[in-house]
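Protein modeling request. Please complete all fields; requests missing the sequence field cannot be processed.
Requester role: graduate student
Desired output: 3D structure, token encoding
Chains: 1
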Amino acid sequence: MCPACNGTGADGGLRLACADAHEPALLGAVYREPRFLPDPSRDDLFRYHRWLPLREPLAGSGTTAVYRSDALARINHLGERLRVDAARVLREAGLSSRVTGLGSLFGIHPGGPDGAGCRRDFTCAGVLIDPRGVGSLSTALTDGDVALFLAALRRVAARCA
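Delivered output (161 residues):
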């Protein structure tokens, strides 16, 4: 459905724009099935075919992963440790920076005129981080990996202070 003109039209799975001429608008989906019901006969990504804009399933498609709550709790705890310790490292270096995040997700937002330069320095310190300063911890990471990250952060913070 087009929110600009309230128009609807058939979608063969490839429609990206409204057929009517008007200002750009983000098309919305109108689902035939109002409830989210996975197809129990499938164990791959296409078990959600009722809610996916697809023409046909791909043979050999991957299955969904389900993590046990203890694995999620472990990486969420690592994320909390990383955020608390990273904020302390930045504060001790005298930087006006913020550390944000939730669960296994984190964001490091260096303050000052060269915040972007500080994020670039992570690569030189042996840590590959998104250019925006955001990251996530995977189930493969350990306390040792967080300690290595914090050591790299100390080196970067010392150069940026």
